[in-house]
Amino acid sequence: MIAPAKYMEESPELLLRKTILHEGNLVEASFQGFRSEPDHPWKRITIRPVLIKGERHLQFAYFNGKQEIAKNYSGQNAETRLSELLSMPYRSAIVVTTDRTIRVQFSKKGRPIIHLEQHRGTILLDMAHDRPKPGILPENQPPPFLREIGVATADGRIRASQQRKFNQINEFLRLIDETGEVEQIITRPIQVADLGCGSAALTFATYHYLSDIKNLPVVMVGVDAKAHLMERHQDTADRLHWKGMLFTTSQIIDYKPSESPDIVLALHACDTATDEALAQAVRWGSHLIFSAPCCHHHLQAQLASNNPPDPFRPVLRHGILRERLGDLLTDSFRAHILRLLGYRTDVIEFVAGEHTPKNLMIRGIRVDNPAPRVLIEEYRQLKQYWGVTPYLEELLADELDPILAA
Ligand SMILES: C[S@@+](CC[C@H](N)C(=O)[O-])C[C@H]1O[C@@H](n2cnc3c(N)ncnc32)[C@H](O)[C@@H]1O
């Protein structure tokens, strides 16, 4: 049941304060979408109750986009920290108690919109101090789409053979969620493209995350060269009545979206397909890019045929080491090119997929900063040292040449 704001008498601040401080059934509160200001660089702040020496404390976890700092407070200190947080310019707050969820969203003009949703069952309250972080998808109540894609059984259990897949899905959603950037996208519906979507477990999971968890209107297009897979996934999306989910058969480089995607996923797309996906995302001006590279052959061929820098001969003599060095260099160039083209980029660990030991993720957030001279110089030096030209540079020559010539 959803009760819109007009039926509520309390101000959002009072409601949040009361629920977080005084209701013993708080499970977790999460604040996101902060306008960036120098004295609070937080992307997300979460609060959950913990029992320390038998006393209820509130654990405030401050996440700045890279790391999380957790602090426990009780009594007056907890109230002070909460007042501080409620005075910050956040865009949305979600407070989950054992029996209901409260969502507060601020419009562009700062008008609060409050939704109350009564849970059908009761969520268990776990106040253990060091409990592992819960995944975004609860394992004990897997959402129905997981059944449709074969990850959960008909009676709602994660299949033993799909446990790794389930963990991978949860890990991937966490990597999206922790950026705190989805709320910053103003396009409606949000446009998402998953390039080289393959078995599409992460495509379905991302749609569920945006549409059902974040409550955002979304159009998601899965793109892959394999027509039979695209037909099968479209049937699944239709069975789920997910009207905003479409699949299309295309080469990544040929895919022409009707609207530019705000978010681009390219997960374990083979070899230079990753470069093609990154190039497309940059040209579309996508706000968020999540790319988990797969095999890398293009640069390795150059490393094998060029004269390597002398100190590296012992490394390049061995095929497997040459391959791994090629992987590292390719991904370093990719991340660096995104930086040069206005993306805040990090390279992080992503749990290994079922078919590949590749577990890196390149995550880019478009900030549109001009490329600093020092980064341009670093790029030139890296290329010159190894005597190679990354494929992504070739694909994005129109965008990169003016920067590198500066
Ligand atoms: C290893 S699977 C990964 C699938 C999925 N993204 C995942 O992480 O589970 C790679 C998929 O990319 C597709 N693919 C590779 N190169 C492609 C290209 N250039 N254009 C379209 N699809 C491509 C393949 O057909 C395959 O389904």
List keywords for this structure.
13 helices, 2 domains, eight-stranded antiparallel β-sheet, alpha+beta, Rossmann fold, seven-stranded mixed β-sheet, binds S-adenosylmethionine, disordered N terminus, 406 residues
Overview of this structure, please?
By secondary structure, the protein is of the alpha+beta class. It folds into 2 domains: 2-118, no CATH class; 145-405, Rossmann fold, CATH 3.40.50. It is 35% helix and 24% strand. The chain has 13 helices and 15 strands. The strands form 2 sheets. Strands 1-8-7-6-2-3-4-5 form an 8-stranded antiparallel sheet, covered by helices on one side. A 7-stranded mixed sheet has the order 11-10-9-12-13-15-14, sandwiched between helices. Helix 6 (227-239) links the parallel strand 10 (218-224) and strand 11 (245-249). It is globular, with a radius of gyration of 23 Å. Residues 196-199, 202, 224-226, 251-252, 267-270, 273, 276, 294, 353, 355 line the site of S-adenosylmethionine.
Catalogue the ligands. Answer: S-adenosylmethionine
Span of the ends, CA to CA: 58 Å
Number of helices, where a helix is a run of at least 4 consecutive DSSP H or I residues:
13
Q: Helix proportion of residues, in percent?
A: 25-40%
> How many separate domains?
2
What is the alpha-carbon Rg in Å? 23 Å
